[in-house]
């Protein structure tokens, strides 16, 4: 099977120029709404059944901290589309578990930087390996072409939704 060429994310349309929702077939919208809602449910169920060492929200936060090393609460909140108060509570939980530490911000003494500890990096690496193994098993039956198309479209959806998160019409 020949791989389908991947257009750049903005080749079909610009996120700044969306199609009106009423031009899309109702059954398509219904299917997409149900699929997106159920995707969240699948993630929650997987988390419970797999017994991962970190809940999904903490895993995502720790991953961002591991990638960025030395980030402010404000930066983390913005990057993860969360309120600062939520990130503060989650960082406290990670700190109590010995996975992150706070240190003074040399650029601004009024703020602190959050960094992963060696234990935090190790735990994130271990959980990531478990998650990647599971994802690999789920997608193994798919053709390479199907995996690439899905990866592209899911990435596009995430990029578009993130770019328009503050749009009150969505």
Automatic annotation (TrEMBL):
Segments for region (Disordered): 1-23
Top-level taxon: Bacteria
Compositional bias (Pro residues): 1-10
Domain HTH marR-type, chain residue ranges per copy: 29-159
A GO term, aspect molecular function: DNA-binding transcription factor activity
Entry's Gene Ontology BP terms: response to stress
PANTHER family for this protein: MARR-FAMILY TRANSCRIPTIONAL REGULATOR, TRANSCRIPTIONAL REGULATOR, MARR FAMILY
Name of the protein: Transcriptional regulator, MarR family
